[in-house]
Amino acid sequence: xxIKNLTVRFGSFTAVDDVTLEIPDGAIVGLVGESxxxxxxxxxxxxxxxxxxxxxxxxDPGRVQMVFQxxxxxxxxxxxxxxxxxxxxxxxxxxxxxxxxxxxxxxxxPVSLAGRYPRxxxxxxxxxxxxxxxxxxxxxxxxxxxxxxxxxxSVQGAVLNLIRSLREExxxxxxxxxxxLAVVRYVSDVVAVMHRGRLVEAGPAEExxxxxxxxxxxxxxxxxxxxxxx
Amino acid sequence: xxxxxxxPAGIAGTLLVALMVILAIAGPLIWGxxxxxxxxxxxxxxxxxxxxxxxxxxxRDILARVLVGGRLSLGLALIATLIGAVAGVLLGALPSxxxxxxxxxxxxxxxxxxxFPGLLLAMFTAVIAGLGARGAVxxxxxxxxxxxxxxxxTLAASVAGADYxxxxxxxxxxxxxxxxxxxxxxxxxxxxxxxxxxxxGALIALAGMSFLGLGVQPPSFDWGRLLFDGFGRIYATPxxxxxxxxxxxxxxxxxxxxxDVLARAASRRxxxxxEAAGRPVPEVGELGEPDQDAVLEVRDLTxxxxxxxxxxxxxxxTVAPGEIVGLVGESxxxxxxxxxxxGGLVPYPGEVSARRLRLCGADLDELPEQExxxxLGTSLAMVFQxxxxxxxxxxxxxxxxxxxxxxxxxASRTEAFARAVDRLEHxxxxxxxxxxxxxxxxxxxxxxxRAVIAMGLMGEPRLIIADEPTTALDxxxxxxxxxxxxxxxxxxxxxxxFISHDIAVIGELCHRVVVMYAGRVVExxxxxxxxxxxxxxxxxxxxxxxxxxxxxxSRPLAxxxxxxxxxxxxxxxxxxxxxxxxxxxxxxxxxxxxxYRAGHRVACWEAK
Lengths: 230, 608
Known about the structure:
Chain A is of the alpha/beta class. Helices cover about 35% and strands about 25% of the residues of chain A. Chain A has a single domain (about 1-195), classed as 3-Layer(aba) Sandwich (Rossmann fold). The relative contact order of chain A is 0.19. By secondary structure, chain B is α/β, with parallel strands linked by helices. Chain B folds into two domains: about 1-40 and about 50-265, MetI-like fold; about 295-395 and about 440-550 and about 555-600, Rossmann fold, CATH 3.40.50.300. Chain B has helices spanning about 10-35, 60-95, 100-115, 120-130, 135-160, 165-170, 175-210, 225-230, 240-265, 335-340, 370-380, 385-390, 395-410, 415-425, 430-435, 445-455, 475-490, 505-510, 535-545, and strands spanning about 295-305, 310-320, 325-330, 350-355, 355-360, 360-365, 380-385, 465, 495-500, 510-515, 520-525, 595, 600. In chain B, helix 1 (about 10-35) packs antiparallel against helix 9 (about 240-265), helix 8 packs antiparallel against helix 9 and helix 13 runs parallel beside helix 16. Chains A and B meet through strand 5, helix 5, helix 6, helix 7 and helix 9 of A and helix 6, helix 7, helix 17, helix 18 and helix 19 of B.
């Protein structure tokens, strides 16, 4: 699929300015940028949550699903895990139970969690439930908006591993948005950098990280805190 | 149910409402005949032993009539409230299922109705619907509906903005199903609470309608009607009017009290029930002599909340001048409460205890209140995650900074302002004099955080506690703030306690790292050893699970199974044992934090 000349304006403010970005089939495209760079607005436009000009080609708007930053607010506190996951399924009632179990297994959660409520789960488990729910709609494109930012480091790894295994196992195309360059680099095939609503650089992950072409990308890379490893 | 009976208001409300319900059920059965018995020998009497509230113009006993009339009063109030609630909730919920234009029309109508005086609306409806109980009930229902509609709209709008509603929309769930499955269940609680309070209001309003002659018509009677009948005689025989008036007042007060208490209980449900834990400070090891050189020395610090919740458990920490110590831990590890406890900022009902809490060589527990405040005000600078929380949005930056100098150092206003501008310049805010005259919202996030650091530098801080100061900032801004913190520490010789969940940031900035898990320190080591020399399995797992710019992309990231125990369920033994590969039977006993190498301490039985 390809996003062509997409622009989002709020009044006189241009949040996303003429962005063109290709998401190859089965690839994970990482989108980095700082707050206010327009990366989340781009995601919401592609998901059909905000109006835009331009075009999103190669994907039916109804087949885009999004996973949000905070799983505690993106899961209805009064619905069980099973009911939440079943929400997007367009299946006869009898087949739902089995599909919910399949989806929970796909995101490496025990099937027994289906009867629990979100507050009883850890942050990482909740986020996996949100991913399972999105996968239930059989999306052609999954948008992950800062899905590890609200998680602790110790569970972040499990969610990132899941994202990579989903690409390998079911060939999921994904737009992975994060402000964390190290996380984006780890999961993505292509890295795109946004700054003040514009796309300043896009290319294969290792290339962008090793040899950034844009000055802004370089300043982002320089600012990443590093742990001196021997 | 227990919280209803904890306060006098709760007890009174519950008793009154229970009394009213019993009266409504049993009243007509017991006193029904008495209330209808006409006695021509006792017409229009005042209070007497036989008729405590007197009799009416047919000689009927007014006390009996008050006791019987309760059923009609309460029943009509209940019906009126239900009519109002159902109509209101429907009106309020409609906009979330209707198309945009129709939704706006409904919202506009509700807004207009809310602005219309309730009693007028009630009387208007009552006149159209015809005199009598039916008209009055419909009228009160109509008067209650706009309030319910507005409340439903407001509550529904907050839920409609939630991420899970966005998700449901993307999944193609219909608007109607979103309303019934997501919106209504999540706003039911406040609506039900409002219902109780509205019931009290409806009861009084109905009595008012009957009193005005618009409500219940003879031969039926409710409290309002009895008041109407007795009112003409209030100067001659006051008891005949006061009886029904008291019944109306008691019922109204009862329902309102109960509604209030229920609402308060619901809003407070977040705090767990139970008594204050008041745990004794564990007597572990020798306390030893205080370290005279240390800026901060904490021994066995414990922070406990009611209900056995103990987020910080016997934490010890020493910070030397010029040193930057990083306190790292996941959410819920107690790291921020540790900072609050040192600054004396633990919120009620938290209880702080420590065997030793020394700042700049002074024992904070032993100082008189005023001196303690002065010491904390001038020697301790605190920087929080959200700079807007530390800055008053209504005041100019310069004035807020100057306040520190006028309050704690007795400087004049001009001196203080000059110093504020100087400090703003020191943290490299461009055009400091102009910025000092601006309000916080006119500054960017990074500039605000600089201003907060400048505020800390107004005194002569010996210790800077920075609690996640860069978490809300972009990486490029984060980098500048970290550099500024390091410069400030170097220049002033102050010590810095830097608290973060981000071990990479800690690794870049700090000299020494203290790792917290479930309220305890599990490891303390020089920063050089963080990446390769960590001895505690938790520290090692934290480092391994962090992706950086060199992580091998072909291999899965390390992650730790399970979750950190919540502050209420921390085991007596090693809290990490559940998630640890090396755990053995020995881990049921709490491992002490013992020296491992030079400047390196670890609390693990397996660290050799």
